[in-house]
Write a structure and sequence with these properties.
This protein is mostly helical. It has one domain. It is 82% helix and 0% strand. The chain has ten helices and no strands. Helix 4 packs antiparallel against helix 5, helix 4 packs antiparallel against helix 6 and helix 7 runs antiparallel to helix 8. The chain starts with a helix and ends with a helix.
Length: 233
C-alpha cells in the first residue's frame, strides 16, 4: 500500500479533529456554566438574559460532537485486520450519533428565540407546547437513542485501536467512567468534567496517531503480523 499525500492529509484531519472537537465541547459548557434547577418557568425566564450564550452553547456543542464523532470514525483508517470489525461498527454508530446530536440540540435554538419575546406568558406557553408535543417527544427520544449509539461507537472505535495496539486499554476505561458519571450525575459540572476527560483521551489518541508510522496508520502492521502468524502455522 503506497503512502500518498491524501493519506497524510486524512491523518492530519483526524488528528486535529480529535483535539478540536472535544475542545469545542469543553468551551460550549464553560461559556454557559450555570447551576440550573428550579421550575421550568424559572429556567425559561432565565434564558432571556443569556439567549446569546444558549445559542452559542448549542452551536458549539453540535459542531463539537460532529467533529468528535467524525474524527473517531476517521481513525478507523488505522484498522484493517486487527480491530477492523470493532472499528467498522463503531464508525457506523458514530455517524448515527452525529444525526442524534443534531436532533437533540435543535430545540436550543428555538427556545432561545422564544425567550426573547416580550409576552413572557405566551412565549412560555408556546415553548411548553413545543417541548411537550408528541412529535417533539418522539424526536427527542430518537435523538437521545442515537446519541447513546454514537457514544457506544466511540467506545468500539477505541476498542479497535486497543486491539490494533495503537492505544492502551486504560483510555477505554476513562471514556466509560466519563460517560457513566455524566449520565448518573447529570449536572453541567459533570458534563464539563466528562468533556475534559474526552479532551484528554482525544488528545492522547491524536498524539499516538500523529506519531504512528506509515504502516501503522494504514493498518499494515496488524495485517503483516497476522500474515506472519498464519505463515508460521
Amino acid at each position: 500500500m503506497m503512502w500518498t499525500p491524501s493519506d497524510a492529509v486524512r491523518r492530519w484531519i483526524v488528528v486535529i479533529g480529535l483535539i478540536a472537537g472535544p475542545a469545542l465541547l469543553v468551551l460550549s459548557v464553560a461559556i454557559n456554566l450555570s447551576p440550573g434547577g428550579g421550575s421550568m418557568r424559572n429556567q425559561f425566564d432565565a434564558m432571556s438574559s443569556r439567549s446569546g450564550l444558549i445559542v452559542a452553547e448549542a452551536l458549539l456543542e453540535t459542531l463539537g460532537f460532529m467533529i468528535v464523532l467524525a474524527s473517531f470514525a476517521g481513525a478507523t483508517l488505522a484498522l484493517r485486520v486487527r480491530g477492523g470489525a470493532l472499528g467498522t461498527w463503531g464508525a457506523v454508530l458514530a455517524i448515527i450519533g452525529i444525526v442524534g446530536f443534531s436532533f437533540s440540540n435543535a430545540n436550543g435554538f428555538t427556545l432561545a428565540e422564544l425567550a426573547q419575546l416580550p409576552d413572557r406568558d405566551a412565549a412560555f406557553t408556546t415553548a411548553a407546547a413545543i417541548t411537550s408535543s408528541d412529535t417533539a417527544s418522539f424526536v427527542g427520544t430518537l435523538g437521545m437513542a442515537m446519541e447513546v449509539l454514537g457514544q457506544v461507537g466511540i467506545l468500539l472505535i477505541i476498542g479497535g485501536l486497543v486491539r490494533a495496539r495503537l492505544v492502551r486499554f486504560w483510555l477505554l476505561l476513562v471514556v466509560v467512567i466519563a460517560m457513566v458519571g455524566n449520565i448518573a450525575i447529570g449536572t453541567m459540572l459533570s458534563t464539563l468534567v466528562a468533556d475534559l476527560l474526552l479532551l484528554g483521551v482525544g488528545t492522547w489518541v491524536a498524539v499516538r496517531l500523529a506519531r504512528a508510522s506509515r504502516s501503522a496508520w494504514l493498518g499494515e502492521e496488524a495485517t503483516q503480523s497476522v500474515e506472519r502468524a498464519r505463515a508460521s502455522v
